[in-house]
Specification:
- By secondary structure, the chain is mainly α.
- The protein has a single domain, classed as Arc Repressor Mutant, subunit A (Orthogonal Bundle), CATH 1.10.10.
- It is about 70% helix and about 5% strand.
- Strands 1-2 form a two-stranded antiparallel sheet.
- Helix 1 packs across helix 3 and helix 2 packs across helix 3.
Length: about 100
Amino acid sequence: MSATESMTEKLIGELELMERHIRMLKVTKENQPIGIIRLSEILEIPKHKVRYSLRLLEQEGLISPSTEGARVTDRYDEYMQEVSEQLDKLIGMIERLKKEIPLS
C-alpha cells in the first residue's frame, strides 16, 4: 500500500465512522428509547459495532442510556448543526485539493 493510499484509507475510515454515528443518532432520535438489537436491525450493522458507537456517543454526551434503551440528549441538535458546518468546510477543502492536482 502506498503512502497516499494509507492516508486516504484513514480518512475514509474516519468518515465511515462519522457516517455510522450520524445514522445511529438519527435512528435513535426517531425511535427512542431504542436498544442495541433494534439499532443493529434497522441500521444493518453488527451489534458489536453498535455497542462501540453507543459507548463513544455516550462519552461525548450525545446518548444517554436507560433501562428501556438509548436516548439522545439535548446536545443532539447542536451536534448535528456543528457536524453540518464541519462537513461544509471539508467539502470546500476537498474541492480546493482536487483543483491542485495536475491531471495530464
